[in-house]
Amino acid sequence: MKSSYDCVVVGGGPGGCSAAAITAEGGLSTLLIERDPFPRFHIGESLMPEVYWPLQRLGMISRMQQAGFQAKKSVQFVTHRGTESAPFFFREHDMRECSSTWQVERSEFDKMLFDRAEELGADCFDRTRLLDVRFDEMQKVIGVTVRDKDGNDHAIDCPVVIDATGQQSFIANKLGLRQVNPDLRKVAVWSYYRDALRGEGDNEGATIILNTESKDSWFWFIPLSRGITSIGCVGDTDYMLKGRGKPEQVYFEEMERCPGLQSRLENATRLGDIRTAKEFSYMTTQHAGDGWVLVGDALGFLDPVYSSGVYFALEMGVRAADAVVDGFKKNDFSASQLGRWTPEFLEGMQWLRKLVYAFYRKEFSIGRFMKEHPEHRGRVTDLLIGRIFDESSEQLFRDMDHSIAKAQKAM
C-alpha cells in the first residue's frame, strides 16, 4: 500500500470494483479497499439483464458465462390468491444475448469483480477499514486514513475518493446527507432452501415475486446454482416486527400466508440461518463533492422487489469512474465534474421507483394491468430488464394510476 494515490475507492462490492477497474484501466493509480475478507456474504443475488453492458465494459461476459451461475431469462408474479402471471420472458422482447442474465452467489460474483479490478491495475486490499476521509479547510478531499489487516493505520494522500461503502455510506453519514424513504420503511427476512420447486424450461431461473394473502408482505424466490434457492419476505417494519416475536417466527408465519409458495417448498430443506435487514430504502441529498463521489448503495437504495441494486451499483461505478478519469485529464475534481452523471441516472431511476410504488399499492395487480393495457407489456418488460434511460414511461404510469383508481372504486 503506497502513501499516495490518484484515486481511493472504498468498498469491494459491484460499485467499488467496477469503479476501481475503470480508473485503473484509465491510467490512474488506484487503491481499492474492502473491510471484510473475501469471499464474503452479501444479499442481492438476482441481476437485471442490463448488467450486461457494465460487465461487457469490464471484460467479464465470457467469465460470467463460464462461472456456472444460474441463467435468469424471466420474471414472474404470483398473486395473493396463488394465481401465477404469464412470465415476462426478456427474449420475447429482445432476442439479443444481453436479454439473458444470471442469478449469482454474491460471494463468488463480488470476488470475480475484485480480482478483475486487480488485473486491470488497482491495488486491492481486503480486511482493510476506512477510518476517515480527510478534508482541507475548503471541504475538498485531501486523503484518507485506513487500517490494514494487521491493525496498522495508514494516512494516504489522494485528490479523489469514490465512496462505495454500501449502506454504511461513510461520507453521507459523516456529512449528514442520508435520508430514509418514509414511504418504504421495510424489513427483509430471508434464508436459503435446497430443492425448492422451480419453473420449467426457460422459466427455471426466473425471479418470482409472490404476494401473501393480505398483501401486507411479499416473498422473493431466487433460484441459484447447485439446487439452492434464496427465499425472502419483505414487509413494512411496523407490520413485520412490532409485537410479533422474533424475525424467524414472523418469517414462518408469513410463509404460511403465501399460497403461491406452499407447493414450491413441499420437498425443500432450509439451509443455514435466517437473516434480517431493515429500513434499507434511502437516498442521499448530495451525491458528489469536491474530490468525492458516491456510488452504489452509498448513494442510495431503492427496494429489492425488482432486483435493481447490483445493476445500479455497476452502472454507477462505471459512470463515476469515467467522470474521474476525465476529471484528471482536465485537472477538475469539482462536485459538478465528479457527479456529472447523476442527474441522468436519477431521472432514469424515477421510472423504477414509480413501479415500486405501484407494486406496494394493494389495489394494483400486474396481471390485471397487462390485460387492460397489453400495449404496455413491452415497456414493463423494459423496466424489468433495467432499461430506464432509453425512453419516457409517462403514459405507462398514467394508465397504471388510472387502473389503480378504478380498482379502488370497485373495492
Descriptive keywords:
21 strands; 411 residues; 15 helices; six-stranded mixed sheet; FAD/NAD(P)-binding domain; alpha+beta; 3 domains; D-Amino Acid Oxidase, Chain A, domain 2
Secondary-structure map:
Elements (H helix, E strand, L loop, with lengths): L6 E4 L3 H12 L4 E4 L18 H6 L3 H6 L3 E3 L1 E5 L9 E2 H4 L7 E3 L2 H14 L3 E3 L3 E7 L5 E7 L5 E5 L2 E4 L6 H6 L2 E3 L5 E9 L12 E5 L5 E7 L4 E9 H5 L5 H10 L2 H4 L6 E10 L3 E3 L3 E2 L2 E3 L5 E2 L7 H22 L4 H4 L3 H18 L6 H7 L4 H9 L8 H17 L1
Parallel strand pairs: 1-2, 1-11, 2-7, 4-14, 11-20
Antiparallel strand pairs: 3-6, 4-5, 8-9, 9-10, 12-18, 13-16, 13-17, 14-15, 15-16, 18-21, 19-20
Radius of gyration, in Å, reads: 21 Å
Question: What count of helical segments does DSSP give?
Answer: 15
Mean pLDDT: 95
Proportion in helices? 25-40%
Can you name the CATH architecture of the largest domain?
3-Layer(bba) Sandwich
How many beta-strand runs? 21
Number of domains: 3
Q: What would CATH call the homologous superfamily of the largest domain?
A: FAD/NAD(P)-binding domain
- Beta-sheet strand percentage? 15-25%
Structural class: alpha+beta
Q: Which term fits the overall shape?
A: globular
Strand order of the largest sheet: 5-4-14-15-16-13-17
What is the CA–CA distance across the termini? Answer: 64 Å
What name does CATH use for the topology of the largest domain?
Answer: FAD/NAD(P)-binding domain
Protein name: Putative FAD-dependent oxidoreductase LodB
GO molecular function, one term: FAD binding
Domain FAD-binding: 6-310
Pfam families: FAD_binding_3 (PF01494)
